[in-house]
Amino acid sequence: MATDEERLEEVYQSVVSRNPGEVEFHQAVREVLDSLGPVIAKRPELAEQRVIERICEPERQIIFGVPWQDDRGEVHINRGFRVQFNSALGPYKGGLRFHPSVYLGTIKFLGFEQTFKNALTGLPIGGGKGGADFNPRDRSDAEIMRFCQSFMLELSRDLGEYRDVPAGDIGVGQREIGYLFGMYKRISKQYESGVLTGKGPGWGGSHARREATGYGSVFFMREMLRTRGESLEGKTCVVSGSGNVAIYTIEKLEQLGARVVACSDSDGFIYDAGGIDLHLLKEIKEDARLRISTYTERKTQARYVDHGNAWDVPCDLAFPSATQNELNGRDARTLVKNGCIAVSEGANMPCTPDAVKVFQDAGVSFGLGKAANAGGVAVSALEMQQNASRDSWTFAHTERRLEQIMQDIHRLCWETAETYGTPGNYVRGANMASFIRVSEAMLSLGLT
Ligand code: NDP
Ligand code: 2IT
Questions:
Q1: Domain count of the fold of the chain
Q2: C-alpha to C-alpha distance for 345 and 351, rounded to whole angstroms
Q3: Which residue out of 84, 116, 159, 169 has the highest number of ligand 2 atoms within 8 Å of its CB and is therefore the one to mutate?
Q4: What was the pLDDT predicted at 1?
């Protein structure tokens, strides 16, 4: 009879052959399956009814064309996706990504991760993800609006407060959610607030949703540091990216007494030894939507390194918060050599498998994305709660809930890792704990 390891390997091989070329999806599945051995050994009933195979197969995959017209009247066609991955714990929930690199494999990897992440929050949300291979860079407001409207015209058929609730991700922020929601409202003839999250607080959104992913990643880091008898106070940090997650990671780190000396975009990074000027950063990225290189025009003592690698900058704490596989084994070795003691993944799967191994072998506390960046989707679920009860909570109340949720996720990962014989391993802890939650629900619901 096959051992548990052999059975998990068989499942992995079948995922690879059923989803050819979707390398990020394979990578995400590999990480989860590699974690499950101890759970299957102790609780074989969770592997019954082919639950592991079923968890790797999306419940539904929707692909559609998105035609739109630019400001010069030229017609473009993009490809839109929504992968409704798993609804054992609640309606499909997860963001939309607009980026030229998006293909089905990107959305599948993100939807798979989302299923487990959402389970860790303890809130009633299943996993899904969507997006398009649309490049919003240098597009006017009107072009973005027309694209969002065309995208929603098709996607609206598959959404609903109790069915599937998208939000933002790379290239999709409050502006895009506004255009998407406006179109949904028109098509459905209803002010169905709960169909999208990440809305503006003035039109049904939750306070602290914009801040939630970044703040949550810092709260998770604080918990990891506590287990080492350390705190954030006085720590030097590097945050990659300069989008939604990066900006609010920097904000919370500054509030809690740490100093962020570098952040980046896909063209290069800035180094500001005195600490990144958050006010200026927000002006550049949120208001003017410019490149990070313009930071040095206003702060001449800072340095911009064109095509440089932010992980070369010495730091105590690293927050990869841009995109998948942005931090490789070489970068991890540099960080370890420079004295980095902990990593919190604000992005989804930003560290390559060899980077994760370098961190774990060196005793660096490593908070994987599906745990560390779960604050965003958690506050999205709180937004759904507020919409369902036609209520609006204060910023302070919502932030306290977020803080509590991140502490609970940290404790769950920590304790699960211990229970199953891999103490301190958040990757194992998070994957096992979330698998238990999703598989128990799937078994209870029968073959549906
Ligand atoms: P934004 O679009 O606001 O910002 C993305 C940032 O990452 C930009 O600085 C961008 O630089 C950089 N970036 C994007 N793609 C690449 C790439 N291929 N190579 C290098 N840099 C890149 O997105 P978010 O901040 O919302 O998302 C960042 C990460 O966090 C993603 O992995 C996302 O999945 C994850 N995440 C987001 C959540 C949210 O609530 N928004 C929740 C949980 C996770 P440039 O402008 O040059 O492209
Ligand atoms: O990756 C993620 O968790 C998100 N992009 C947020 C999803 C959400 O529904 O808020």
A1: 3
A2: 8
A3: 169
A4: 65
